[in-house]
Specification:
The chain is 29% helix and 16% strand. By secondary structure, it is an alpha+beta fold. The protein folds into 2 domains: 113 residues, no CATH class; 197 residues, no CATH class. The strands form 5 sheets. Strands 8-12-13-14-10 form a 5-stranded mixed beta sheet. A hairpin with a 7-residue loop joins strand 13 and strand 14.
Length: 385
């Protein structure tokens, strides 16, 4: 290992040698040395922790998802000289995949961490069942397949699993989405007076509140990612630039309408999900759920909501899963007995931009006092059902 003495008990590593915030925090709380043995950074205060302790902390994190083949019930095939079923990984494989070492240009820190691991060979900790993440991912894939190609109305929500006993049923997937959204804190208030922007190409039409607002049901022919043809909803963005980019496909003349919400609204916000914790961030004993599992699934769903749509007259069955999720959320009530008024999602066409779909139609518009005034249009969502 490059002639480096990893048995030396004086070796210490600083937080700047890592990117993971949990590892950096561990080093900060256990620093004993004023110099890093690897990047040679120095300070008048302790900045580096013993490499043995840091490697042990990293190994404890890896054990949350991986274990030794013997501990996880894998069998040894003496003829093929390998464990089965499933795959195995050696320690350098996992360190390379899971730990970023920005300053380790000569590989000495990487070798030192590997040297101080107790385990040399690893496997997925869930050998005979799907991991939580896999179960949710495959359940979402199953949900999409059923909704698009088998049935999308009146499927039962009275059973938890599909036929194989491990993949969640479509009805239960919907329940999970709302439960996770509440648990993570995605049910948020859209305060009264929020300004929203909507863009339309008004060829030969007057620039009025009704023409700029949500279409009447008989003119809601365009399929959207959250609403099928015939269902009127209001799509708007939180700034005019995002509204333009979400709408405009080619250079033409467009009209931007500004809307103001007339009351507080309750929305499910997929636009600002918390960061997914790494394996090295311990879950507090008081926490009743694993945030990694919830957030990895919700990120998948948020990406589905944010995908741009194709504006043509074709039937796009790939929109159906998010349409069904939207319809389900529209009928739900929060723990505070509040109805869901809409969904916020990130813009796929304007980085950092946010858009919303609100469950309202032209009957919810409060028209301006002057028929010539189109600069402000109020959305009275009090009539939402």
């Amino acid at each position: 290992m490059s002639g480096y003495s990893y048995q030396d008990g004086d070796l210490a590593v600083c937080a700047d040698c890592f990117i993971d915030e949990a590892i950096k925090g561990f080093i900060g709380g256990n620093a004993t040395d004023e110099e890093c043995s690897f990047c040679r950074a120095t300070s008048e205060e302790p900045i580096a922790a013993p490499i043995q302790e840091v490697a042990k902390f990293i190994e404890e994190g890896i054990r949350r998802a991986y274990g030794s083949p013997d501990e996880c019930g894998m069998s040894w095939d003496s003829e093929d000289q390998r464990y089965y079923p499933g795959s195995t990984y050696d320690t350098p494989d996992l360190i390379a995949d899971l730990v970023d070492l920005p300053n380790d240009h000569d590989g000495k820190l990487f070798d030192a961490i590997c040297y101080h691991f107790d385990n040399d060979l690893w496997c997925d900790i869930d050998q005979y069942r799907l991991s939580d993440h896999e179960q949710l991912r495959y359940s979402w894939d199953h949900f999409c397949r059923v909704i698009k190609h088998e049935r999308r109305f009146f499927f039962s929500r009275h059973y938890k699993y599909s036929d194989d006993g491990e993949i969640f049923s479509p009805g239960h997937v919907l329940e999970i989405i709302f439960e996770y959204a509440e648990t993570i804190g995605l049910i948020r208030k859209l305060p009264r007076g929020t300004r929203l922007y909507r863009v339309r190409k008004l060829a030969g039409e007057s620039r009025t509140a009704l023409n700029l607002g949500p279409p009447p049901p008989d003119k809601a022919w365009q399929q959207n990612r959250m609403s099928p043809a015939g269902i009127s909803m209001l799509y708007a963005s939180e700034d005019a630039e995002t509204a333009l980019r979400e709408t405009v496909d080619q250079p033409e003349v467009y009209t931007v309408g500004e809307f103001t919400t007339e009351r507080d609204a309750t929305i499910v916000d997929f636009s600002q999900l918390p960061r997914i914790p790494t394996l090295f961030e311990p879950i507090h004993d008081a926490m009743e759920y694993d945030p990694r599992k919830l957030l990895m699934f919700l990120y998948t769903l948020a990406e589905e909501f944010s995908k741009p749509i194709v504006r043509d007259n074709r039937v796009h069955i790939e929109y159906v899963p998010t349409q069904v999720v939207t319809e389900y959320l529209r009928g739900m009530k929060t723990r505070e007995d509040l109805s869901i008024d809409g969904i916020r999602y990130g813009s796929a066409r304007h980085g950092g931009g946010r858009s919303l779909v609100l469950f309202c139609d032209p009957h919810n518009l409060i028209l301006p006092k002057s028929s010539n005034d189109s600069s402000m249009i109020c959305i009275g969502t009090g009539g939402l059902s």
